[in-house]
Specification:
Oligomer: single chain
Number of helices: 9
Mean pLDDT: 91
Number of domains: 2
Number of strands: 21
Helix content: 25-40%
Strand order of the largest sheet: 6-7-8-3-9-10
Distance between the termini: 32 Å
CATH topology of the largest domain: Rossmann fold
Radius of gyration: 25 Å
Shape: elongated
Length: 347
Amino acid sequence: MLEVRSLCLEAGDFRLRDLDLAVGEGEYFVLLGPSGSGKSLFLEALAGLRRPAGGRISWKDADVTCLPPEKRGFSLLYQDYALFPHLTVEENIAYGPRSKGRSRREAREAARRAAELVGASHLLGRSPANLSGGEKQRVALARALAPGPALLLLDEPLSALDWGQRREVRRELKSLHRSTGAAFLHVTHDPEEALYLADRMGVMLEGRLRGIGPPEELFRNPPDPAVGAFLGMRNLLPARFSGPGRCEVGGVEIAAASASEGLSHVWIKPEDVLLSLEPFPSSARNQLRGRVADWEPAGPLLAVKVDLGGFPLAAMVTRRSFQELGLEPGKKIYCTFKSSAVVTVNG
C-alpha cells in the first residue's frame, strides 16, 4: 500500500500543499486535474525524482521519502514516452530489468513477456523512429511493466494519442491492471478517462487534493463548487438557505429536500429537468416558467438552456422532443424538477 502524509513540494513559485493519499495494493487510482495543477510534480515526488519539502511517502509501511528512484520498485511512464532512439524496441523494454541487475537472458525474457502483454511482440526488432504514436505508447508501457513494478505511475499516458488510439489503449490499461495485479496511479485531465479506469479517483486543483472517492460519487456529489465546475457540471448554481427544505437561487425560491443552513450552491442535474409547453401534471414541487435561451449538442441529446429570470437552467432532451416542443430562442417553456433532484453543496 502507498501512503502519502502531509506531503509538500516546491517548484519555483508553485507549491503542493499538505497532500494526503492512500492507494491500496492492486488498486487503479486516477488523479484528475487541469494542466498546471501539480499532478506531474506529485508523480515525480512519488518516483523519487523530486525531494519533498515536507511530509512522508511510504510503501508497505516502509518510509521511501528519501530513497533514490531505483530503490523504490516503482515504474514511471511519461506522456512523451522517452524511448531511447539508439536502441531497438526489445532493448528499450529490457532496459529496466537490466538496470536492476538481471542477466541479459532474463531481461530479454522479461521484455518479451511485457511486449506480449501489450500486443507489441511484432515490434521487438524495430527502431523507435519507425513506430507510430500508438506503437510508441505500447512500447513505453511494456518498458514500464518489464521490471515487474508493484506500483506503476502513469503521467497522462493517453494525451498524445488520437481518439481511436486512446480508446484502444484505455481498454488495454484496464486489462493490464487486472492481469498484472499491480497498483496503478494514473494522472489525467480527462474526466471520461477517469470514469472508465478508476476504482477510486481524486481531484487536484492548484496544488491541493480536493476530494477522493469512487468516480461516480465525486461526479454525483462534488465536495465543493470548484470541483463541480472542473468536472463540467451544468446547473451548479450559487444559492442560499431560506428555510427547511427550501433555498433561494437568483432571487427565485425553489424546493430542495436536502437544504440546510450553510449551503452555498445547488446542483440540478440536467437529465432531471423536464420541459413542457404547459405546467407539467406531476407531483414535482418545482415548476418554473422561463424562455428558451440557447441549445447545444451533448452527445445523442441536446442541452437546452432556459432563462428563468433569476438564473439559467439546462435541461437534456432528445432531438425528437426538441422538434415536438418546437423549441427556439425566446419561446416560453416550463421547467419541472423534484425537490429530491436538487443536490446541495456546502462551503
